[in-house]
Design brief:
The complex is a heterodimer of chains A (356) and B (304).
Chain A (H helix, E strand, L loop, with lengths): L2 E10 L2 E11 L4 E5 L6 H9 L6 E6 L2 E2 L5 H4 L1 E4 L11 H10 L9 H14 L15 H14 L4 E5 L7 H18 L2 E6 L2 H7 L2 E6 L2 E6 L1 H6 L4 H6 L4 E8 L2 E4 L2 E3 L9 E7 L4 E4 L6 E11 L2 E10 L2 E9 L10 E6 L2 E4 L11
Parallel strand pairs in A: 3-8, 3-9, 6-7, 7-8
Antiparallel strand pairs in A: 1-2, 1-4, 4-5, 9-10, 11-12, 11-14, 12-13, 14-20, 15-19, 16-17, 16-19, 17-18
Chain B lengths: L2 H11 L4 H16 L5 H30 L4 H9 L1 H34 L5 H13 L2 H12 L6 H6 L8 H27 L2 H8 L4 H30 L2 H7 L9 H10 L3 H32 L2
Classes of the chains: A alpha+beta (356), B mainly alpha (304).
Chain lengths: 356, 304
Amino acid sequence: MNIDITSVSKRFGTFAALRDVSLNIESGELLALLGPSGSGKTTLLRIIAGLEFPDAGDVHFNGVSAAHLNVKKRHVGFVFQHYALFRHMTVFENVAFGLRVRPRKERKSEEEIKRRVGRLLEFVQINSLAHRYPDQLSGGQRQRVALARALAIEPNVLLLDEPFGALDAKVRKSLRRWLKALHDELHVTAILVTHDQDEALEVANRIVVMGNGRIEQVGTPDEIYDEPANSFVFDFIGESVKLPVTVDSGAVWVGSRQLPANGSLPKPGPAHLFVRPHDLAFGEAATAPLQGAVRSVRRVGAASYADVRLDFGEESLFVEATIPADNPVRPGDRVGLTPRRFRIFDPAGPQALSSI
Amino acid sequence: MALTEVRNDQEELGEYDPGEIYAPRRIRSRVVRVSTEPFLVRFAIVAAALAFLGLFIVLPLIAVFVQAFSKGFSTYIKALTDPDALSAIKLTLIVAFASVTLNLFFGVAAAWAVTKFRFPGKTLLLTLIDLPFSVSPVVAGLLFVLLFGLQGLLGPWLAEHNIKILFALPAIVLATMFVTFPFVARELIPLMQEQGTAEEEAAVSLGASGWATFLRVTLPNIKWALLYGILLCNARAMGEFGAVSVVSGHIRGETNTMPLHIEILYNEYQFAAAFAVASLLAMLALVTLVLKTALERKLERKSR
């Protein structure tokens, strides 16, 4: 189902949760709403579900306004953050709930309900747990029940609020892949809310990055990662290093050294350079635009990182650079760093949250 | 479900921390084992506690029954089967039933409103729910006299239309309701607050109507706390004296509830009869206590 969100705003008291948000969701896609807490992503999801109503703007389902439809009428499958399973019902009854509460004339026979719930439990691979109660299940199993329960009503759209937030890292990873496979099989329109960029990058077809109640960028995972639209997105997605630079006469200056300009530059004046740690190349201190001393070396999984203290006059500025396997550096070494790929953003643009 | 069954299930799952469920039991056994005080001190403390309970609670309770049977079993039966006594018992049961039923309805509605919705005046409502606890029952009774009495606000209008509220059943029910209102709501609010609204939202998103959501999701989640509230509400409703005394008018065989009847008998020096009726109320207290303990166990197990 195609969902069209037009100029939606929502306030909670004095807090503006959403400010004039517009977004089109294609039928059958798996879209991730990604952002830090307080960015409005959950509010947007709840507005699509009909659990909240916007102060301004509208939501259209397949071109029909849903403004007057509450959550009961919208026919959405909502998977809640902490699953919200009915604690006094077995797994089977949880999944059957949506079928049992239908108006009498639309209700399926008991036989049919049994068959369908059985099929769903098989589909999410928990048919052996049908007679357990929610508090007898692990987090991953609860998640599967919640999903089966939402799918039971054959929803127009599947809405998932931080679906993997409460799970440990291993289970989270396997469930992510499983969800993606499940979506490929069902082709139901699905919207996922998450604050975890890895989750969004891995699972979604398209990502909506949100910050402070606004949409900062919409794009495929590759577009979001490789071509962040502004400093907020660059800073929020992936590891990033931020340096103060000056834009002057068509070039970027770090102190007295010039960087080869790439792409469009903001207006002359002070600006911020953003670069990924793995895009900082080690080289000779004499020729590279950035110089400094290696303070420490860390190994995280497969990659090693060096904390380099840059020579920036009085203030000490640390950057993190990925050490190439063939060029080991040790603490104390004088090194030069060249940003291979970087972006320059106007400091007046959307502010990044973490500015270390 | 048997406790051992639960344990087996959890062991199979492996991820569950059994300590969570068995914590109360573990604490209990620790209290027995870990005690550093010398025997004499422990003995003295326990003995003091037991003596206090015996002197002020058990002894009076026994005294009620001893006094009730002091003139023999036949006098006891006669006191209970006296027409006035029977009418008092009947009235008490009717009043208790009516006020508990109405408070069940209003209590659930109030708890539902307070815990599931955001609205202005919520704090005020919470304070109002507690009001009957802090107001003397006699004042509560007077409130109704001021409202429905002949000199009161609505009195003349009621008299004109020949509607009798004061010194009749309606006023007794109203006064009892006022005094017992907090019991159900107070029992439900903390539990419903803890449970949040997510399950209700899930039910509605699956297509359930408001009523179906209440019956199938909310009610099963609160049923033991609700029963507990009803039990306390009922015990208080049957025993209420102050508020009822003000509004009932003490008409023998008509508007006397059991506590009022006991007082009248006592004032007329019919001690055996007074204690006989009192023994009925005492028995009600004992039954309530047993049920309350059973329910508390159940609640403890549910809300782990």
